[in-house]
Please model this.
Amino acid sequence: MLEKTGVPTKEQIDSAFPSEERMKKGPFVVVECFQKIPCNPCFTACNRDGIKAFEDINDLPDVDHDNCNGCTLCVSKCPGLAIFVVDMTYSEDKALLKIPYEFLPLPQEGDRVMGLSHGGEEVEKVEVIKVQNPKGFDKTPVISLAVSKDKVKVIRSIKVPKERDRSEDEIVCRCSDVTLEEVRELIRTGHTTFDEIKKISRIGMGPCQGRTCSQLVIREIASITGQDPSSLLPGTYRQIVKSLEMGKVIEALEKEEQENK
Amino acid sequence: MVKTAEVVIIGGGISGCAIAYNLAKKGVKDVVVIEKGYLASGATGSCGAGIRQQWGTEMNCKIAKMSCEFFETANEELQYDGDIEFKQGGYLLLASTDKEHEQFKKNVELQNSLGIHSRMLNLDEAKKIVPHLNTEGLVSTAFYEKDGHLNPFHATEAYGKAAERLGAKIYKYTEVTGIEVENGRVKKVKTDKGDIETKVVVNAAGGHSQVIAEMAGVDIPVYSERHQILVTEPLEPLLEPMLMSFSLNIYCQQVPHGGFIMGRGDDTEPRDLRVTSSWQFLDEMIKTATRVLPPLKKARLLRQWAGLYNMTPDRQPIYGKVDEVEGFYLAVGFSGHGFMFGPATGLLMAEYILGEEPTINIDMLGLKRFESGDLILEPSVV
Ligand SMILES: Cc1cc2nc3c(=O)[nH]c(=O)nc-3n(C[C@H](O)[C@H](O)[C@H](O)COP(=O)(O)OP(=O)(O)OC[C@H]3O[C@@H](n4cnc5c(N)ncnc54)[C@H](O)[C@@H]3O)c2cc1C
Ligand code: SF4
Ligand code: SF4
Model:
């Protein structure tokens, strides 16, 4: 499911949440990272041991909710935009949900915008409480939203009204510097699958191998061509999963040869 | 989808798109290209896209020279709003045996007589062009600065768009499932999206050309062999020309974007149309690459993939008609060098189909040569 649609299962989402007791104590992190990839910025971002040291860089992050105080430092550091912070104690009926958000235009504090699910479906209107975009977040702003308490496991993004959509210079692929406008133009001129767009624009050909951009591109294809995102083909995944120095392969081969002697 | 067409071309790789463009340019009204994936989703999009004119037979030299000259001005000729990224950094061919050295000398002589100004370089001269080259075990090199490589997706896209502008129709994500032949004549091409009546069908299906031929009841002497290839993360500029060695079994280039692309041949590779990847390839490829160009040890592997070489007994393409089935034409069997032949394939096949005076006579590349035994023996292939 995750590989095909980018949407995790209910069980996976549940597993990212702490116990009821912990939730009552204040803000906590929700790390929805379910694919083993060579990545650990969440660990290096946290200075309270909220995310434990990685034994192998491919491991999934191991969260310790007792150490986490929901400081939100890690949210903008995750290249997969997989980290959120939830505060169930925000008010009587609302929870505060902090999400990383890399689209332009940014919403403004006080705006009421549509909350979207993991798969991009509209869920409910939510209020924008805060927009944080300091230099240190390196162009990954964090938006705080007031959402219904029963929607904290559902809402993961927002839709900002179209008339604000003036800047299409937003970069969709950071490896190859491809902008949203370029992607949209390719879709309009008949490139209707991720692989096609990848080959002609180099989107997803960089070190991230499409992990960041593929779902964004598929969403654009779906909205421009009017198709259901889950019916669209994901891109082809290729080895090598984790980039590897050629010299290291040579060393390993030599070692193997020694041992075989 | 249209119900009839003057010409139906099967395959939207460099060959199919170039043929469509040339036919449309010559005024053929209803040219249709059927492609089961997207443009360049076959061998064309998997290939190294190296363009070399340093060949060992007159025919190949001429075809390659004509194609290379086309690529030099293709952005303008095809009115492409992108860039095919043709980088003419030359091809440096490495000889590692005396026999190879002698062959290169002969080739250079032939090439020079055909207007290809290649030359032999000794190892010191070669080092001036590729300072990081490890010359240990090498004897000499041959070099031609007008060879190079380009971006195969953009080249195919450029042809496809130009063809469409001239009225050709390209149906992507449409698979040919059958060819109807009646009284020894082509009648209909069947696809999963409907049938098209036509009198002329061009088989430009790359690695699947034998499957398409079979649909018309024709047995062609080709098979497909998997060839693997890899790319590294971008590095600082280190390598200007394409490096190639037949005896060491490697070709390696640094593309404008900075990554190194390299591949090798292996005749134990599967022949069942598989395009998966293997670790064995990585091991062997890395051994040769880091030996030839030691700084590559620091290069980080990014991705590997594979494509099909459509092989003929003499590793030369098959161009032309099929006697048993009137109206059925072949542009197949490129044996690993069909990308650089693309522009010539397009023009020569269009002339052939329309019965025009050929720019280069391609009769000797016909299917008949396998019956009569007039094979063309090209010494310089990977
Ligand atoms: C790893 C590798 C490296 C290479 N390096 C070079 C190089 O450096 N220089 C060079 O000149 N050549 C190189 N080649 C060879 C070159 O890629 C091919 O010769 C060339 O691309 C052939 O183009 P084509 O259009 O004839 O075939 P293809 O590009 O294979 O196009 C055929 C098309 O037909 C479609 N098709 C097949 N069956 C059907 C069907 N039933 N219905 C509809 N469509 C169908 C396929 O999807 C495909 O897109 C390399 C090949 C490989 C695999
Ligand atoms: S929210 Fe703060 S404390 Fe919690 S895991 Fe992230 S960085 Fe650590
Ligand atoms: S993707 Fe995000 S959560 Fe997962 S390991 Fe990387 S930084 Fe941590």
